[in-house]
Design brief:
Largest sheet: 6 strands, parallel
Oligomer: single chain
Number of domains: 1
Low-confidence stretches: none
Number of helices: 7
CATH superfamily: P-loop containing nucleotide triphosphate hydrolases
Number of strands: 10
Order of helices and strands: EHEEEEHHEHEHEHEHE
Structural class: alpha/beta
Helix content: 25-40%
Shape: globular
Strand content: 15-25%
């Protein structure tokens, strides 16, 4: 049976893509066929092939099969804030069909969300509504920075209140100079009702690195 996980974050720019790559690398190391999926991407750039999102391209490159870009990222938006785009219709059925296609030929699909748990789509509904409809277990990425404890606990509580399983969380040290790092991790371990799957240190050009050593998928 294919495993599917929805990777969300405490906010935007907290390391969802890097954690998604780490998970893809780790499951692939375990001999599983993996696929990355970015249902809706914002902040994309125009190319000769049309709009392309860097995060989605990374997920495509780390997938086991040679999926087309459109299969990895069916909705590609140029705007940085997807809730501001009123011209592109977000077809939830198409997002579901895309996930099914990847899952049929994979052992594990890592679905990367956009922004935080309540990031709004252009219809005014959060992408989390789609994740809830799919009943996807959630992996929470916590960007370790000032205020992250409150954001992490609120997100964890909301995911659980929405009826989904919080499969685990990952700490990403996006601020290398932040004091009391160990105390923050300890507090989050005490309060988040899910296992800590790994800690990513501050890594320049992290998406180009071997990230397998920072993630433990045994609880998944």
């Amino acid at each position: 049976m294919t495993k599917c996980f929805f990777v969300t974050g405490t906010d935007t720019e907290v390391g969802k893509t890097v954690v998604s790559l780490a998970l893809l690398q780790k499951f692939a190391e375990a001999g599983q066929r993996v696929a990355g999926y970015k249902p809706v991407a914002k902040g994309s750039r125009m190319t000769e092939h049309g709009p392309r999102n860097q995060d989605a391209l990374l997920l495509q490159a780390h997938s086991s099969a040679e999926w087309t870009y459109a299969q990895i990222n069916p909705v590609t938006l140029v705007e940085d804030e997807i809730s501001l785009n009123r011209d592109t219709c977000i077809d939830h059925q198409a997002l579901q069909s895309g996930l099914v296609t990847l899952a049929e030929q994979s052992d594990c699909v890592i679905v990367e969300g956009s922004g935080g748990w309540r990031t709004l789509l252009n219809d005014g509904k959060p992408l989390s509504d789609w994740a809830i409809a799919q009943q996807l277990p959630v992996i929470l990425v916590v960007g370790i920075k000032p205020g992250c404890v409150s954001h992490a606990l609120l997100t964890a509580e909301t995911v659980i209140a929405d009826g989904l399983k919080l499969a685990g969380w990952v700490a990403n040290r996006i601020n290398p100079g932040l004091p009391h790092y160990a105390e923050i991790i300890h507090a989050l371990q005490e309060k988040i009702p899910a296992p800590l799957l790994g800690e990513l240190p501050y890594l320049p050009r992290a998406a180009e690195r071997d990230l397998r050593g920072y993630i433990d998928i045994s609880a998944l």
